[in-house]
């Protein structure tokens, strides 16, 4: 079988993580040929394999991307001789020349809480941009032969949104690769950790955005300082809140909140940490926390569990699906309940040990090899279905 992987939309975060893990798995297979369309900077990271052809091309600008994908990419697919198209970036190719699997993994298009949040911040351009992309994402599900979501919880959201059949295939995780990362923490990160020696270290791994609900985390910090009294609390972030934009998101209000709450010294802004050294950061911390109100899978939860960290997470169905009994959950906008969960973990070592044990077991259930096996099974079924349709 020949698979065409359209990965041009991957430019940051989960999209790049996905391609970095899936394509090497495909390169190991003898039963599949793959043509990969990908941005040059990511393409240079791809393995060299006899069954892999990498088409490096510059990512088109925002204004021309849709036209490029619907015309030029369709032509590349036809020329490649592929049997199945795997569109990895939430948007499908209309009238694909081959059977198409669409990976849909953006919860913002279906999130009423995100729209409400944008209106409260006066982010009307971003609100309009999300609405436009949401309409295209919804149409894409109609265009694709099969749509795959990274969790059952998000698949159910998409079913309600589109009234279409959506399959759930969990993203994977390479435990050995992650825990044996080839790089050590940067000097500035090590220095920051040294300054938090003796403090309860809470970790949240994410670039800054609105839907990860940083504000609920921030409001919990002074509560913890009061509840824990003699213990200091340090919330470690892998982003910088310098009052400028982080991608599409303005950090000015978040930076002001730190000052207003008097917790600037308690919130340690490490900035981005290379994936190859992230394992050291997880292992240096005590509890992983997330207050996100929109999510589709959340890889950092799996990374935290694999690193032996107990997790305190907002009560999203996705979080409960991924972590199960390896986490404590709280209402997503309740800083009080978040603080209470953290105090409970610190005061009950048996509970903390149980969550740590559950976390190690749960993280082992995610596998990129199994993820690729399932995708190829779906692809083979689509090829057989099209062959049967032609014969009739």
Keywords:
single chain, 392 residues, alpha/beta, seven-stranded parallel sheet, six-stranded parallel sheet, globular
| Beta-strand share of residues | 15-25%
Topology, number of strands: 15
N- to C-terminal distance: 22 Å
CATH class of the largest domain: Alpha Beta
Notes on the structure:
It is built from 16 helices and 15 strands. It is of the alpha/beta class and 392 residues long. The protein has 2 domains: 2-172 and 367-391, Glycogen Phosphorylase B (Rossmann fold); 175-363, Rossmann fold. It has a 7-stranded parallel beta sheet with strand order 3-2-1-4-5-6-7, with helices on both faces. The two termini are 22 Å apart.
Q: What can be said about this structure in brief?
A:
The protein has 392 residues and is of the alpha/beta class. The protein is built from 16 helices and 15 strands.
